Amino acid sequence: MDNLTLSVSVSGNHAEFMASSDKFPDCFKASYPYVFTWSFYKKYSAGYYYSFDSCAAEEYSGEGVYKESLSIGNLLDGSARVLETDVIIGNPSPIGSFNYAFDEINKKRILFKDNSIAKRGTKIVSWLWDFGDGTTSEEQNPSHEYSFPSNYEVTLTVVSDRGDKNEYSQRVDMPNEPPAANFRVESVSDLTFSFFDESTDTDGNIVKWEWDFGDEAISGEQNPMHTYGAAGKYRVSLKVYDDGYAEGSYWTMLDTTTGILNRDPSVNISGIGLFNNRPFISFKYDDDGIIESCKWDFGNGTTREDCGTYYDNMRRVFVPNYSNGTYNVKVTVTDNLGGKASDEATVKVNGGYITISK
């Protein structure tokens, strides 16, 4: 019995084992004092069973590597010799997988998490990440910061302790935050002004500038100078492009007489409601400076200057007591630099019910 070897043949999920030697080339039954103890992974409450047969068979339910053994025991002296073999069912290679998330503080930094699965009887011992930009990492859960917004094919290669490999790839979309356009102006002479770009880009570089001075003149310089042909107010706009082809734009009005930049405010009457049984009109305005006045004409002979109270991202102005009828309501807002904007709506009152429309 000393020269017995253990072999296994596998077909699908079925494995057949045989302990054999030159003297015993085929399946045979052991005779006293020898006994075989087969230890199989999947069954038997004790994890093994005794037999005098040198052959055995097993059915397996899943892919992986199963380490099985046969103990050849001598009942007279209590000695035993153990033969071991690996049973490979299906593909023993690990299954590579990962996900990723953007760092909440640094949006250019991506956190990768390995979700790979080792097959039964194996374990993953190495990881190789290819981030698609020429850089790699051998950490299990690395982080990576891309220098340029784009789409990257990231590949993770995992290797088991048996040397089996598996690759998993996923596209990582590195978004490009558009630049924020902005500028300031300085007067050089009566109608000549210098324009200074103050645009920013949080994840790249601004590479192109498009100026429109509002008098049909344009420029592609970053910080141009321009002379107007006549005094007046001109709509000056700047559009910028970054190295990821994203764009941002900004415009405002230039008064060449004062050299002041001011973007006229906007105002919108949006609805009507009740607060403590008092009807109010809700409205909203937008401005690059300070709104100094809100003048109302409620359409029934009542006027009032009132910017209302702020509530739920809107402003409320209480309306006068209306009789049944239809009223045209108008509001005009003025900012601290003289910019104005108006909006109108129609209020209908019928038997205590009040509605507003445009």
Task: Lay out the secondary structure.
Layout: E1 5-11, E2 14-20, E3 34-39, E4 48-51, E5 55-59, E6 64-74, E7 80-89, E8 98-102, E9 109-114, E10 124-130, E11 136-137, E12 143-145, E13 151-160, E14 165-173, E15 183-187, E16 192-197, E17 206-212, E18 218-219, E19 225-227, E20 233-242, E21 247-255, E22 260-262, E23 266-275, E24 278-286, E25 291-297, E26 303-305, E27 309-311, E28 314-318, E29 325-335, E30 340-350, E31 353-357
Antiparallel strand pairs: 1-2, 2-5, 3-4, 3-6, 6-7, 8-9, 9-12, 10-11, 10-13, 13-14, 15-16, 16-19, 17-18, 17-20, 20-21, 21-22, 23-24, 24-28, 25-26, 25-29, 27-28, 29-30, 30-31
Q: How much is the radius of gyration in Å?
A: 41 Å
* SSE class: mainly beta
In the predicted model, the low-confidence regions spanning at least 5 consecutive residues are none
Gap between N and C termini: 101 Å
User: Tell me, what's the shape?
Assistant: elongated
Summarize model confidence as the mean pLDDT.
90
CATH architecture tag of the largest domain: Sandwich
Strand content: over 45%
Number of strands: 31
- The CATH topology of the largest domain corresponds to Immunoglobulin-like
Largest sheet, strands/sense/barrel: 5 strands, antiparallel
CATH superfamily of the largest domain: Immunoglobulins
Number of H/I helices: 0
CATH class of the largest domain: Mainly Beta
Number of domains: 4
Helix content: under 10%
> Largest beta sheet: what is the strand line-up?
18-17-20-21-22
